[in-house]
C-alpha cells in the first residue's frame, strides 16, 4: 500500500473505532505509523475532525426543526392536501392543530414492554426439551448420578434438589453448543475409573437397562451446586426414544 492509497482510506476513517478491525484500515494505520509525513497528515485530519465535531455539537437546534423541514419539502413538492369543499378545509385545519402528547411514544413503549412481560411463556415439556434432542442421536441412553459437595454438618439443613430441577439443568447443559464429554470410551470400567480419579460420584450398580449397553463417554455436571456424573451409552437403534435414569441422590456422610 502506498501513501496516496493510505490517505484515501484514512480520510474515511470513522473516529469511533468502528473500522479498526478492517484489514485495509489496519494496514493504512500501520503505514501512517511508519511514514512520518503520512502520520503528520493523519494527525492533522483527526484534529480537524475533532474540532468540526465539537463545533456541530455546540449548535442548539430548534425543537421544531424536523417539522419545519418536512413542511418545507411538502410545500416544494405540492404535497399539502387540497381542500375541495369547505367541509374538507375544516377537517384539514382541525387535524393540523392536533399535537400528540410529548409522552405518547414513551407510554406506548411502556405498554408494549408490560404486555410482553405479562404474557405467560409456555414452558416446554421435558419430552420436548430433552427427549426430542436426544432422540435425534438415535439410541443414546443416559445415567446421571449426583452427590452433595457440602460438609456433613451442612447437609442436614441443605435443601434437596428435585429430579425435575436436575432434568431442567441437564437439558440446558446438553443443548449448549459447547457440550462435550470429558472422556470417551466403549468400556464402562474405564469411565468409572476416570470418574473415581476425579472424585465424582458413581453408582454402585448400573440400572438393568444399561448393563448390556456399550458406553460412549462421561463428563462432570454441576447443577444447583451438586456435582454429578453423566454417563452416555449406545442404546438400541430400534428404540424410538432413549431412556434417562436419575437414581436417588446419594448423600456423603
Question: How is this fold's topology laid out?
Answer:
Layout (H helix, E strand, L loop, with lengths): L2 H8 L12 H12 L1 H22 L7 H13 L8 H11 L7 H15 L7 H10 L4 E8 L4 H4 L7 H12 L8 E2 L3 H10 L16 E10 L2 E9 L9 E2 L8
Parallel strand pairs: 1-5
Antiparallel strand pairs: 1-4, 2-3, 3-4
Helix pairs in contact: 1-2, 2-3
Give an account of the 3D structure.
With 253 residues, the protein is α+β, with helices and mostly antiparallel strands. Among the domains are: 3-57, no CATH class; 126-245, no CATH class. The protein has helices spanning 3-10, 23-34, 36-57, 65-77, 86-96, 104-118, 126-135, 152-155, 163-174, 188-197; strands at residues 140-147, 183-184, 214-223, 226-234, 244-245. A five-stranded mixed β-sheet has the order 2-3-4-1-5. A hairpin with a 2-residue loop joins strand 3 and strand 4 (226-234). Helix 1 packs across helix 2 and helix 2 (23-34) crosses helix 3 (36-57). The longest helix has 22 residues, at 36-57. The protein is flat, with a radius of gyration of 34 Å. Mean pLDDT is 69; it is low at 125-141, 147-158 and 238-253.
Task: Summarize the structure in short.
46% of the residues lie in helices and 12% in strands. With 253 residues, the protein is of the alpha+beta class.
> In sequence order, what are the helices and strands, one letter per element?
HHHHHHHEHHEHEEE
Quaternary assembly = single chain
Main β sheet profile: 5 strands, mixed
Number of strands: 5
Low-confidence stretches: 125-141, 147-158, 238-253
**Shape estimate:** flat
Q: Helix amount, in percent?
A: 40-55%
Number of separate helices = 10
Strand order of the largest sheet: 2-3-4-1-5
Structure classification = alpha+beta
Radius of gyration equals: 34 Å
Mean model confidence by pLDDT: 69
Q: Terminal Cα separation, in Å? A: 71 Å
How large is the share of residues in beta strands? 5-15%
